[in-house]
Amino acid sequence: MKKHTSPELPGEGDTDYARYMRLDTLLSLQRHPDDMVHRDELLFQVVHQSSELWLKLAVAEIDEAAVLVGKDDLPGAELLLGRASLAIRLVTDQLDMFRYLKPADFEAMKPALGNGSGAESPGWRDAQKASRRLGLAFQAHLREREIDPATLYPGVATDSAYRLAEAMIEWDEQVALWRVRHYTIAIRIGGHGMIGTPNSPADWLAKLIDYRFFPELWQLRVLGGHAGA
To answer: Which PANTHER family match (predicted)?
Structure first.
């Protein structure tokens, strides 16, 4: 066993690990058991708080990818998009924790949530903004190099513009899969308003299922695939 050593980093905590990870702060961000109206508030907060952290990472990767596109480093941007897509996949996977949350449990938790809604997530709003910046950077790259977007598909694996376009599609798809999973979980819990009820969270999620950040790439991909068939 490794011998315990005195921490060298500044901050709170008995170890450098605790200080670097700021565990005292991180683990105090959830409601205290004495303040909870239902024990599953911890589950609810951990899933959403960790989602915001993964989204923070994903947005940072997308933003840097947009910068790299502007610098003509498409392979570097492609790599960062892969990391962002994996982050969203992890956000989606952890939604499975809500399978253990019954409608009655969620109903009991509602007083603690106030008027809060996932639609207010700053992480998802930032992801939308970052995706728009990336899309604009890619469009500018194609214009500056006089690349006709219609020629991207069918593509070849050695073409950096094609590979980046595919990475953008993958990012878009992972977000879309999250929307579908989020919608089905919302309906499963049953505390998100009737399907079709105007302005209900369930109705809002349903309308977003078909939304894409890069619809032109999806269309070009299908048209190019037909052309190459």
So the answer is: TRYPTOPHAN 2,3-DIOXYGENASE (PTHR10138)
